[in-house]
Amino acid sequence: MLSILIPVFNYNAFSLIEKLHNQALELNIAFEIICLDDASNLFINENHPINQLENCSFTVLDKNIGRSCIRNLLAEKALYENLLFLDADTLPVHENFLSKYISLIDKSEKIVYGGILYERIKPSKNQLLRWIYGTKREALNVSEREKNPYLSFLTLNFLIKKSVFSKVTFNENIPNLRHEDTLFSYELKQKEIEIIHIENPVFHLGIEDSKTFLRKSEEAVLGLKNLVDSNLISQDYVKLSHYFQIIKKNHLTTLTAFGYKVFKPLFAKQLLSKNPSLFVFDIYRLGYYCTLK
Predict the structure, then answer these.
(1) Distances in whole angstroms, Cα of residue 159 to Cα of each of 1, 32, 67
(2) Fewer beta carbons below 10 Å: N end or C end of the chain?
(3) Tell me, what's the pLDDT at 173?
């Protein structure tokens, strides 16, 4: 019936698994929960009790294989046709989380995305940038997501059939620099596989501090540039690469890169403050894009 697939890396996933396990038992369905740990250094002992839960497994890989490879490996290990992917640092918002997904299982080839939420209470100052970005850019309701159904899709909470996953897997040849979900959604769009958006969110709990998020955002820009330069996605698919092309066509790349380097300390100071601006964050990433060769 349902294989619940969870990649784990340096996170205590037991609470998530326990919650899912209890919901699945109440529904009296055939299920399994497979957790693959991508060679973590932390929380191994905390996650091992997952193996004591019925139909649940927790396995630590010998070496780190990255976000794309581990999702493909999870799908390969799954017994059932219906695959529910969840990130380890999430937690279902509602007690009928699994039943909502199960009610939408049929023979059609589609993906169902439930959405994401962030807790309403503001975190500490050093986590505000990630929280504000998530709240404003990721935690969208169904009507907002449906305006751009493919780019609004995130890979931390979605249902897919094995038959669909065999047509669009995660690309294992790209660098492990994020945007694997962007490429995945682009390929779904190219193959005209429908994404159904529903209100069935999970809380995203693993919020990085602002310095870490800023560094990872730079990695993501590099990853996006790699996808565009490799012709894996259209340069107009993501706003950031689209705006870069406009700058490039107007021969402003060098000037923009220079401005970024000059003002980078001020940008960083603002983004690490108690009132980070997403407009400044966008300018920061666009300027960084222009510095890349």
Answers:
(1) 12, 14, 17
(2) C
(3) 87
